[in-house]
Fold each of these.
Amino acid sequence: MAEGTVVGLNALKWARFLIPGILIIGSVAYFALFMMPDYCTEIDDMNETDPITEFSVQVVGDSLFGADADGCASVSTFMSLRLWLEVEDNSVPGATVIGDESISEQYVSGSWNWTVIDGGGNDIMPYCTENDCDEVLDEIITDSGEGLIPDLVETVQNDGSKVILIGYYSVPKGSEYEPVILEVEILNDRYNEFAEANEGVYFISLKDVMSPEETPELYSDDLVHPSDDGHFAIGEYIGNFIIDEHKKETGMWFR
């Protein structure tokens, strides 16, 4: 048999093994990149069509932001698509204001234009259902504007960022947070008063976005977290707020 024929047959034999392997590796890579639960094609599309790069926003906080939501369903993703820039989401579901790995630890120092902060619900829930809550609330933020959240705001403002403090929405009847409604309201009020007393700090009450009576579809089945529709409503609201505030200063948005 001619030498060229032998070489050709050997190459075909190897191809029988190599081609399926290449196809398998390619399929796995495609799945890992494009089919993972947190993959969002809309963000990729945005990043390929001239996104805003001269403006930056960071989010820190707890599961209200839905950082673990599938696909494009997180609050920060909906903010990104409204603002047309990729919002940096460092929030962590279950995060607390008090203790190790706190919300303050999520913050990444940098030249941010806006930083959005929420937190306190996961501190209140496990402690305040059966105990006096004054100590926990005061450690988060006192009625005179001191505490861990004000300290975080100071750190953020030292970087030149404006700050949005998020106030929690009302929960439906039957929610596990129903026993601590009063404590959550105190926290919301203190955030609001702190924002009113400090320039460059703004308060957004999510009661203006969703309520059990008027928008029950914005709550998830656990009666605690927002649904995907709730994430959309919150993300759009925060995004619009940032755009409106920027327009007040400059008369325009970037796009």
Note: The beta strands are 57-60, 88-89, 114-117, 162-167, 201-205.
Amino acid sequence: MMNISIKMLKEIKLDNFVVFASLPDMGKVGGLVSEHLIKEFQMERFAEIGIFEKPWVKIEKGLVKPVIDTYDFYVNYENKVIIMTGKEQPQDPNNLINLCLTSFNIIKNIGIPKIIYTSGGYHQPQLAQAPKVYAVSTDKETVIKLKSLGINVFDTEIEVITWFNGVVLGVASEMKFKAIGLFGEITETNEQQPLAAKSVLKVFSILENIAINTDGFEILNVSLPAYDGDSIPLSDTSLLLRNGDFTRARNMGFVLFAVPWSLRFC
């Protein structure tokens, strides 16, 4: 039994288009960015990927139904933009890779993309000003361009970006697609960080010369509560090696700061 499926709602053909593929991560930045672009551009849903990976099923009136996580694709013809997003990250590494590969198969059937973007959160314990955006790319020429535009580029700050919003860049590189990752600074990992998403969208707007209204993020800047003792599933936690220290990644798909090894999970 295959645990991944594709549903095409409409055939799309474009060339020289932009793809923005990001999922909710630390601070929900990746999800907030994708959701805002879908609403801002009034995009049309044209495809869906389904993954059956949850270790439980639903029961409705005595009938068992599998829990399918869906990842949706949207198109805006005017700006030639494709968005891929979902409500959460896959929890199994194999499903993560399959999601990336399946997404790129859908993209290749549309046409040849000009560039692929993703986004996420970059944890900083304190911020003295509006969140900055740090970028990475799959090619040196784009890194030079980013620096020439005054956009911060990760250097020695981090060595690893985990889960979808990182792995999708690696898959893009292997498939010879030009790609950029944009990561906004956040101070809280378990609360929505709309101002970080706003900063990411401003940089995206500059890079693609597309007007994007971000006023709504000021209203969204209301945090969701997190409580001491909240549990984190083992599948949502990883330890990453950076400069001889261990880095703790929560909810996978995050760029994180170094913390002492004494902060173990159990």
Note: The first helix runs from residue 29 to 40.
